[in-house]
Amino acid sequence: MTDINDLPEAERTLLLVDDDKPFLTRLERAMDKRGFIVTSADSVAGGLAALGAAPPAFAVIDLRLEDGNGLEVVSALHEKRPDARVVVLTGYGNIATAVTAVKLGAVDYLAKPADADDIVKALLASEEIKPEPPENPMSADRVRWEHIQRVYELCDRNVSETARRLNMHRRTLQRILAKRAPR
């Protein structure tokens, strides 16, 4: 793994595309502190516009955006700059979209919420060497809890609608929501 600060400024450019504004802001700050020159967008249209005349060397793109699919941005970036290293983030991971993302040029596919250190490792990992597994990965209970919270927020905090979409009894969901997040 190379150090980002060893690269020339033009090779430290990073595009972040995510419609979750608080997450985008936190990730933007974290990546800036790590030495990247960050541009961010909160939609497919914004991401495509940000590619502009000087496509970035790195990108972190959410799969599902309000105005479309983040894979459109991955594809457009790979056409303009085939050597760009892209990591796709998603709260809805499945094998088919992971395969599609890699075919379109992504170097990794991470589940949300992803840690900034894990994202940097994925972006900077050499092609021959796989990045090490995370030191403190989220537990399965935590991943489940995060997924439930995300669906709950997407359903505008409507317990009945969330329970229906998760194929879960409403009272069970209420008990889960009343508890603290697992470690």
From TrEMBL:
One of its GO terms (biological process) is phosphorelay signal transduction system. The modification 4-aspartylphosphate is found at residue 62. Coiled coil: none annotated. It comes from the Bacteria. Keywords: DNA-binding, Phosphoprotein, Transcription, Transcription regulation. One of its GO terms (molecular function) is DNA binding. Gene3D superfamilies: 3.40.50.2300, Homeodomain-like. CDD domains: REC_RegA-like. Residues 13-127 form the Response regulatory domain. Pfam families: Response_reg. This is DNA-binding response regulator. It comes from Pelagibacterium lacus.
